[in-house]
Write a structure and sequence with these properties.
By secondary structure, the protein is an alpha+beta fold. Helices cover 22% and strands 29% of the residues. It has six helices and eleven strands. The strands form two sheets. Strands 1, 2, 3, 4, 5, 8, 9, 10 and 11 form a nine-stranded mixed sheet that branches. Strands 6-7 form a two-stranded antiparallel ribbon. β6 and β7 form a beta hairpin.
């Protein structure tokens, strides 16, 4: 694994959740929130050059405004020779990030190095309510970007206006259709586009635990679980609901997983243990499925 002279890894990958009222915060504003939190964290974040330098952060596929997520990702590049501010006297042992013996790739915060656990707690404390760090781990040299590597996302969607039986019938027709056209805007013009190749899986499910937000208070509702491809062009949950009919209304959407597929297998960009995921869900007032 590539590292700096001071022992810090070149890049860190962060997995976090976005739940509750902060779901209405745009992706651009979330980027600014992270920039402020990282400045206060003491991490030696690397900066770009030029007239308008910015911290070198790389986010995954943008979450639609209004959607929640239990699996958002951020890659943070660290400055060469940087030192972790406050590490020597930090009672949470943040200094363990600097010890190569403690670096472990693809491990969640609950199971990973003590420094990663402490940094996850520190960052969560610097973020507004609804943004919670689940895991942090160093990235191996040569790891690809999140935008390039993530090939699909799993979603849970609350649908209003349709009973479960009617929704199941429509899902069957949608999956059987060779082409599913929706209107998409490109360069200021609306044009039909086929989303069927990006629809990898779609199922009507029960939701006794209400994973993604509070349940609707009235009217018919049902829940969908979907896996949607991100390439060549991602499908937004609202576009999927449009294909199911104008009377199907999206109430809540929650991204559950992002997937990297390689050599016939798939994995998450950063694995989080059940204990860590449960702790985040408890802070959000929900249980994970």
């Amino acid at each position: 694994m590539e590292g700096h002279a001071a022992g810090l890894p070149t890049r860190l990958r962060v997995r976090y959740s976005k739940t509750g009222k902060i779901r209405f915060t745009s992706h651009r504003d979330v980027v600014r929130i992270w920039e402020r939190a990282l400045r206060r964290s003491g991490l030696p974040v690397a900066w770009s050059g030029g007239y308008s330098p910015r911290p070198l952060l790389s986010f995954g596929h943008a979450l639609p405004t209004g959607a929640e997520s239990l699996a958002e990702y951020l890659d943070v590049s660290l400055a060469p020779g940087g030192a972790l501010a406050g590490a020597p006297e930090d009672p949470e042992h943040l200094g363990h990030l600097e010890d190569p013996e403690h670096l472990a790739e693809d491990r969640g915060a609950a199971d990973g190095p003590a420094g990663c656990q402490a940094l996850a707690r520190r960052l969560s404390g610097l973020l507004p309510e609804g943004l919670d760090v689940q895991a942090i781990a160093p990235l191996a040299h040569g790891s690809g970007s999140l935008q390039q590597e993530v090939s699909s996302c799993s979603w849970k969607l609350e649908v209003l206006g349709l009973a479960a039986e009617e929704l199941e019938s429509r899902v069957e027709r949608l999956l059987a259709a060779p082409v599913v056209l929706v209107e998409r805007e490109r360069k200021g013009r609306c044009a039909p586009d086929d989303l069927r190749p990006a629809l990898l899986a779609l199922t009507v499910v029960a939701d006794a635990d209400h994973t993604c937000g509070e349940p609707a208070t009235h009217g018919e509702r049902a829940w969908l679980e979907a896996e949607l491809a991100t390439r060549p062009r991602g499908v937004r949950p609202r576009e999927l609901l449009e294909a199911l009919g104008l009377d199907a209304r999206l109430s809540r959407a929650c991204r559950l997983h992002q997937w990297i597929e390689r050599d016939g297998t798939r994995r998450e960009p950063l694995v989080v243990s059940g204990r860590a995921a449960g702790a985040v869900a408890a802070r959000a007032g929900r249980r994970v499925p």
